[in-house]
Amino acid sequence: MQAAYYDRQGTADEVLVVGNLPDPEPGHGEVRVRIIYSGLNPTDVKARSGFAGMPMAFPRIVPHHDGAGTIDKVGAGVSESRIGERVWISRAQFGRAFGTAAEYSVVPADLAVSLPANASFQTGASLGIAALTAHRCLFADGDVHGLRVLVQGGGGAVGAAAILLAKWAGAWVSATVSRPEQERIARETGADLVINRHADDIPAKIRSATGGIGVDRIVDVDLAHNIDVDLACLATNGTVAAYATEDPSATLTMPFRSTMMGSHVLRFVFLPSIPEDAIRLAVKDVTACLSAGAHTPHIGMELPLDQIHKAHAAQKSATVVGKILLRTASSND
Hints:
- By secondary structure, this protein is an alpha/beta fold.
- It folds into two domains: 2-127 and 297-327, Medium-chain alcohol dehydrogenases, catalytic domain (Quinone Oxidoreductase, Chain A, domain 1), CATH 3.90.180.10; 130-273, Quinone Oxidoreductase, Chain A, domain 1, CATH 3.90.180.10.
- The chain has helices at 12-15, 42-49, 121-125, 128-139, 157-168, 180-188, 202-209, 223-233, 256-261, 276-291, 308-317, and strands at 2-5, 17-20, 30-40, 66-74, 86-89, 104-108, 112-114, 148-152, 172-177, 193-196, 215-220, 234-242, 265-268, 299-304, 323-327.
- Helix 4 crosses helix 5, helix 4 crosses helix 10 (276-291) and helix 7 (202-209) packs parallel to helix 8.
- The two termini are 17 Å apart.
C-alpha cells in the first residue's frame, strides 16, 4: 500500500516520506479500513516536529488519528457483516505506530464508527479529535440546552465543531474570530453572535447580548491569554473549558476572589485523558448530530496523499480556515 511515514522528527520536508509499505492485517478485535480521506490535526504536526520535547513513540510512524473509509477486512472476534461498512475513525494512532495517512489502516473495531448515509467521507474524516474534544468541552458539566455558550476561537476545527454541536443541542452560541473568512465560517456553522477579537470589546458584546448575565460555558483555545476576558464574560456558576496552547511554557494567572465569588469552574480537556464513558457518549452524540444533518464541517484544503508535506505546512501556518484532508491514491469513490 501507499503510505506516508517518518522515521525521525523534524520539519515536514525533512522527514515525511511517501512510499510503499506492506498492507496491514487486522488482529483479534480489529478491522481494516480502506481509507478514503485522512484528516489532519495540529497534534499530528506537533508529534511529527517534536513539539515541547514530545518523543518518538515508535521507530516508524504513519501519522494522523482521523479518517474515513470502508471496512474491507475484519479480524477474529469481529462480525464479517461489518465488511463494506462506511465508517469514520478517531484516535487511530493512540498507542499505535500506524495512523490513517495510508491506503489502509487497522484499528480496534470500536474506533471505526458507522458513518450515516447522509454524511460524506470528507465529513467523516473531519470529525475525530476536533469533534470529540469539542463535545467534552461542552458537555462535561451537563447538557447545554437553553444555555449560553461562547467559543473562543470559532474559526478553528475544535471551535467550529463546538458551534455545530452546541447549536444541535439547543444552545445560544457566540464565537470569537480574528479574520473575515473565519467570521463567514462561524456564521455558516450557526453562531448567533460573531465577535472580532481584534476590533470588538468581547465582554461588552457578550453582556449586551445576554442582558448583562454572561455566558454559562466557554470553550477556549488559548486560556492563558484569554483568562481575563473569559472571566468578564462568564455568568455565575459558569464553566471555562480549555483544550489547547501553542506555548508549552505558558502559565495561568487569575484573580482568586472574583473567581471564587462567581463560583466559576475551570476545566482542562486533553483527549487522551477523557474517560472512556465520556468518549462513548461523544461518539454517540456526534453520530446523532451527523444523522440529523447538523454537523457539516468546513473543508479548507484537500490534497492527494503524496502532497502531505504541503498539508502539514498549511496546518502549521494556520492560514487555512477549515479542515485539511488528504485523499489516498487508490481512492475512486
